[in-house]
Structure formats: C-alpha cells, structure tokens
Design goal:
This protein has 483 residues and is α/β, with parallel strands linked by helices. The protein contains 16 helices and 17 strands. It has an eight-stranded mixed sheet with strand order 12-11-10-9-8-7-14-15. A three-stranded antiparallel sheet has the order 2-3-4, with helices on both faces. Helix 4 packs across helix 5 (170-183) and helix 11 crosses helix 12 (336-351). The chain is globular. The two termini are 33 Å apart.
Amino acid sequence: MLHWKHSLNNMRKKPFIKLFKTYLGHYFFDVNRNEIVPISLESYTYLKKLVELNQDNVDEYVTDEIVQLKAAGYLSEKRVSILEHPSSDVLKYLLGRAMEKITIQVTQSCNLRCSYCIYSDLNNGEQRSHSAKTISKENARKAVDFIMEHSIDRSSVDIGFYGGEPLIAFDVVKDCILYVEKKYYGRRCTFSMTTNATLLDDEKAAFLEEHNVTLMISIDGPKEIHNIHRRFSADGKGSYDVIMENLNNIKNKYPKLYNGLMFNMVIDPQNDFDKINDISANGIFNSLNTKSSIIEDGYSIEKVVASEDYVAKSEYNLFLAYISKLGIVDGLVAPLVAQTSADEMFMEKNALKKQVSLPEKGAPGGPCIPGQLRLFVNADGDLYPCERVSETSPAMKMGSIDEGVDMESAYKLLNICQLTPEKCRNCWAFSKCTLCAKSADGGEELSAKVKNSFCDGVHNEVESRLKNEIMLMENEAGLLCIH
C-alpha cells in the first residue's frame, strides 16, 4: 500500500471514533458520521496507536487510506459544543399540546407476589410497596381530561391501564373507557392494559374485546419456569395454569381480543435458557407478539446475576436467530426467546442514519421527552415521565394532574447530560447512549454519581450492538459463511 509522509499537522489530532476488529476485518465507528467504516490492518494499527494507546511517537508515515478518509470528511475530532437536548426549546409545546399516551395506575394492589417485583416487601429497594390504594374514578377521569387537553395536536392518543393488577379495579377501567367514548366521541383513542391475566374472566374479556383494548400479558416461560417467581399472594401457588385456562378461553370465545394479545417474558438469567425457550412449544404463542427482557433490578435490593450456562446458551441462540433472519441456513427457525434481540438488531441497522457531522448543540441518545411518549399518573394523581421510574423519588416527579407539569423538572429530566458534561461530550457512545433520567435517580435529586455508575454497562451494550451491525455488513459483503 502507498504511504504518504506525515506532513499534515491535523493527522495526529485524535479522531472521535471507536475501533473494532473481527476475524474477517478491521473497522472504526465514526461518531460524527454515525457510520461503521471498514479499513485495512495498517490503518487500524495506526489509529489504535493514535487513539487507544495514546502514543506520541506514532509512525511518521500514515496510510494513503487514512489521508483519503480525512479528505472525505471522516475521522473528525469534533465534539458537541453545547450540551442540551434538541427538544428543549419546544418542550413546553410538546408537553402542552403533543402528548401521545397516558398510563393510569389503576391500583397499587396485586393478587400475585412475584419474587423479583420491585414492589414486594422483600425486594423493595427504592420504591413503594404493594398497597390497597386505588385511584378514584374522579382522578382517573381527571387523568383522561389531562391527556386530552395536552394532546390537541395529536391525531390519536393512547390511554393505558397499569397496576398493581388493573383487573382488580376493573370498575375504574370500565368507567374510564366509557367516559372517554362518551365525552370525547369522534376523537381517535386507543386503549391498552398490562395484566397478569389471572382475573381475565368472560365478563372482562367481552368488555375489553368490545372496546378494542390491547392487552400486554406477563408470562415468564413454561410452567416450571413461570411458577418459580409468579405466585399467588393468597396461597403461594403458581399462576401458570390459571393464565393458560384464561388464554385458551379467550382464544375460543374472543378471537378479536386474542389476535391482538402481546406477551412480555421477564427472564431470570439464573434459569436454564433451554427450559425458558420451551415456551415456544406452546401453540398459543406461535403467531402472537412476544417480547422478552431480563429482570429489571434498577430499584431492587437483590441484583440480577446471569449464570455462565445462561450466558453461553443465550448467546448461541441469539446467533441462531441472526442467521435464521439472514436466511443463511435453510429451514432454521429462530428460537422464540432470542427473536426480540434479533429483531431489534435488524431494526437498528435499518434505522442507522449516516450524517455529515455532530451538531453544535446536542445530547446523548438516551432520554425521551419526559411524559410526552408515556406520561404516568399514579393512584395519588402525581405525574412521572413513565411507569418505570420510582414513585417515591422526588427527583422523578414532574407535577400532578391538578397542578400540571412542572416544566423545570421536565427540563432537568430531559437534560441529564448536563450532570456530566465533559464525560458525555467525549463519550464515543454519544449518539447511541441508552441512559435516561431513571439512570440518574438519586432520590431527592438527580445524581451525577448514580448516572456514572451505569456508563460501563452502556459501553458494553453499544459495543455489542455495533459488532452485530458489523456482522451484518460482513454477511452482505459475502464474507460470512456458515457450513
């Protein structure tokens, strides 16, 4: 390869990149361009010395390839100058006229005691406990009025019902839905509910089907896996058989409701992956939307630790899901539990938008607009960015249905990057960061220390995602072969 003498001073400026290598090639992720770029071994070696090893005595010669990449606008050292979320200037409008969804905490009561639940007495670190508190019909209607008044510029709005277990207070759910249909006739409105499905009898199913309510049902795997954690509070028995009986009843009697079902599998990575995946043998899930996620432990006392066996099997099955979607092996069916991650990878690849450069003003990619996408109102009428944050944390509260949105709090929740400006500005995972306000929840106030504690995990996650994108690139280039 031709080499050019290092005569340009800017060649030694450290580009804003992340280097990668695989068995098949060498690459860098250009943060400014939001692009993965293949390079030669010689260029990779030079960039590694310059960027990762911080060597002042890098070779006097730089590859022709790097000179050409620089000339084409790659390998820039530019960082964002002003750290502020781009939606900050229109935050008042978005929360005043363009909200998309409200999730109403119908009740804090639940008939199950799932061992990993952050609301349980044993695993409750920084959250409330289960209680008998139920939102009043008056406050539930206020919540409906609130979202309608703050979504004027939206063509549709979704109203979700959440718990505890919302079917315990089904009278509130019914009243809400009928109130919407009567008062806001002509306004396009959808309804959704997260439920454990143990109380889903004919009366409830018939009403939910008639009013087009979409259900998200929690199911953690086949019977022997599901019943480890998801047990009834009254007698400690597993809930799997009751749920399956209700689901089969819905399948037979309420096909419209059944065809719209979605399932959420909460996976304990201490369990055997193959046994968890056995749920795919149950025909009731075959054609329905099923997603999975690891137990969330952000507010839990007991933290999640994956067994070595689970990690090995999950990575292998994820690989099978990838090559199944790529069509490399004829007849290979992707494991159900691994499908979610594989689907997300392909969606991310298709959504990867190349750009010329980072903007002058910007923020890491994690935070959504607090409250705009899925405003959460608890049983007391307090407002939070979403249902996944702590209800006992003053730092997460952003107003009430009576007093409205606290715009100062909303701005802080949106701009958690301002807690750690230099670290965020110089982070190679800037545009792909997944940290939101929840990751900076220090209780009384947002915390830089708490936020920093999540950074290594984000780096590992983003690195893994970029490696997956490289694998797709290598496949498209005909480099990846499975025999």
